[in-house]
Amino acid sequence: MRESLGDLIYRAEYTIDERLNYDEKFCKIAKHNNSIEMIIFDESERLSMNTTEFIRSIFDKKNIGVLLIGMPSMEKRFSRFAQFYSRVGFAHNYRPLTGDELTFVLTRHWRSLGINLDNADFTDVQAVATIARITGGNFRLLHRLFTQIERIMQINELTVITDDVVEAARSTLVIGVT
Fold it and tell me: Which of 45, 49, 67, 138 could bond 74 through an S-S bridge, CB–CB 3.0 to 4.6 Å?
């Protein structure tokens, strides 16, 4: 992680510097600045103590913001690392989507597939109920499920999201018992 992240930061800064600080004749016109403002880590609860310490040193030395995304228990785990935790600005727990919020998000997902979500259509209502049951309003899981729904619809050349399509999409994901 230490080698990979250091190399990725260097390459990103170099690429940004190349784009922003050279003219059309490729002559350098400005001094290199640290161009990276933030690094985002997903599934941060999986980070080791050494990796967490390395991320803290990046934050301190390079003045780069760090955004950690992970499971709710992550904050409690990081609180045991005082040097790291003292730099945490805030932690935000996302609550599950409510019925109206879920309907709003699903309407957008349906539209992205070129389909209109119709609350008067039994097939759509049944598919929405299945999605709500599977995801429990979890936005990340909803996104993962819809990625699979889209894939299944393309492979099978379908034009309607049915309960069977949703269940087939669910079966491809590694998720808890629903």
Answer: 45
